[in-house]
Design a protein that fits this description.
23% helix
Length: 257
């Protein structure tokens, strides 16, 4: 159960954020992004989380996506090593906040030549699925496994062949239910899950977010919303259209613990 979250306000430099154009083309509207982010933070608070909402940082266009420079869990936190130069400096900023919740003895780092971003890390109970992608390499995954194994966690690596991060293409909803693409549906690591393949025209909605039993779903994806509702989860629709333009989604906008 989550009790806390860390978020970070979008900066005006958001318009220069990294984008593959996979989910949506266009330049984010800063003012609209701020309103959407405020609503996201308020929703987390409504669901009972104590949210630490950090101030914007104009040095890092993508820094509102706080999930990428750190992975947090019971017992420890791992400061990642983002692969892109424009994002790598975010790790030095997020650690200042991480230290408010974890002792230095509980904080670990992914070191060069390892790279990792939190969007590639999916926790299921005490097991992590780590996506091997352009952002997270084998060495980063190995270092991560060595760290978290000390705290009773296990890991499996999963190839990410479709785009940016693992959680863009597979997201765990709890109760052994997982949303996947057709490619991830055939991934051996996920064979024992109840897999629900999201329609190709709603791939962005795979990145839905379970907060203590309520699932946040990107607005405008009725087929995926219906899948989740039919599984019995209460649903809250969240507008993230401005973040979608730079490959941002619900999970990457917060660190939850």
């Amino acid at each position: 159960m989550f009790t806390k979250a860390i978020t970070k306000k979008p900066c005006k430099a958001l318009i220069d954020g990294i984008s593959t154009g996979q989910f949506c083309e266009g330049t984010p509207d800063y003012e609209a992004a701020v309103k959407q982010h405020d609503n996201y933070v308020e929703t987390l608070r409504q669901l009972g989380l104590e949210v630490t909402d950090l101030e914007a940082d104009e040095r890092f266009p993508d820094s509102c996506f706080v999930e990428d420079p750190a992975v947090v869990m019971e017992g420890c936190a791992v400061i990642t090593n983002p692969a892109r130069d424009s994002r790598n400096g975010e790790k030095y900023e997020i650690i200042k906040t991480i230290r408010k919740f974890y002792d230095d003895s509980q904080i670990f780092h992914i070191e060069v030549p390892g790279t990792m971003e939190g969007g590639d890390v999916m926790l299921v109970d005490k097991h992590f699925y780590v996506g091997l992608s352009d952002r997270t390499n084998e060495e980063g995954a190995k270092q991560f496994s060595d760290i978290v194994s000390k705290f009773g966690y296990t890991t499996t690596t999963v190839p990410v062949t479709e785009g940016l991060h693992l959680k863009d293409f597979a997201v765990y909803l709890e109760n052994n239910n997982i949303l996947v693409t057709s490619v991830m549906n055939d991934e051996p690591a996920f064979k024992d899950f109840n897999r629900f393949v999201v329609d190709p025209d709603e791939l962005y909605a795979i990145n839905s977010l379970n907060i203590n039993g309520t699932v946040l779903v990107p607005a405008g994806h009725p087929k995926t919303q219906k899948i989740i509702e039919n599984l019995g989860y209460p649903v809250m629709l969240i507008d993230t259209t401005e973040f979608k333009k730079i490959d941002g989604s619900l999970t990457c906008l917060s660190l939850r613990f």
